[in-house]
């Protein structure tokens, strides 16, 4: 029997291009040997995205929609989408066609060769600002130095995972998941296919700087303890410095250097604050985890069979 491939597409305010995406994917799917389901996750769009998808569901029962009750973010939309798939393999891709469907057959080929996870490696990125490409390149290189996992450089969330990998992903219950890090973390046989990342077909990026920073911080704080260790070094610095200074003052008897004292104190206070900041970000994650809230709330599911009713978050 032919394989079933599930495609997970997170959607946030994509009304400008979502219809084109669906039509393009329908055209692509109709030419393939495999069976396909398209699982859209509407991440609290405030526009007509969900309505457009529901309209398409009427005509095509291979299209499904998971609708979030508000915007929970791209990473949680992917996490949720995975849970609603039934395919032998699952492909995650953006809903703006920046990840071209033509790459999927190459991913499937690698999967058939025996790889569990095939990630897309961006060889070239069109229509993205120098700032975005530069900060992204910097992030991946810094992450590599800090992290406990060996995440491949310059990969996004465009990838294929087989059922086994998806099942393992579902065992991870992080509040603020960094999906590409989690995928690396679960291990298995992984490989890449290179691809040319296109410009988005319509609309603007849904990843403002604030969301990019959150993603980078989630990535680092969930896969590296090094910044926390750095805080320890930082807090030791003023202490050791102060001690050395005290010994120096005792030795020379020069206890009148008030200005130097003030400068030192300012430095110490600055460093302590910095350390506290770093501690704070980790504590934030711990608190999130301890709270143990469901990570997202689904308000509605459309186009599923009984299976969806048995999913618990
Ligand atoms: N997205 C989402 N929730 C968000 C932000 C983005 O589901 O809070 C979706 C968006 O609709 C798109 C994908 O995530 O399908 C990637 O976002 P975008 O294309 O804006 O990011 P970029 O390609 O500019 O990095
Ligand atoms: Mg995009």
TrEMBL record:
It is a multi-pass membrane protein. It is found in: Membrane. InterPro entries: Glyco_trans_2-like (IPR001173), Glycosyltransferase_2 (IPR050256), Nucleotide-diphossugar_trans (IPR029044). Pfam families: Glycos_transf_2. The keyword Membrane applies. Keywords: Glycosyltransferase, Membrane, Transferase, Transmembrane, Transmembrane helix. The chain crosses the membrane at residues 230-251, 257-283. Residues 6-168 form the Glycosyltransferase 2-like domain. The keyword Isomerase does not apply. Coiled coil: none annotated. This is Glycosyltransferase. It comes from Companilactobacillus mishanensis.
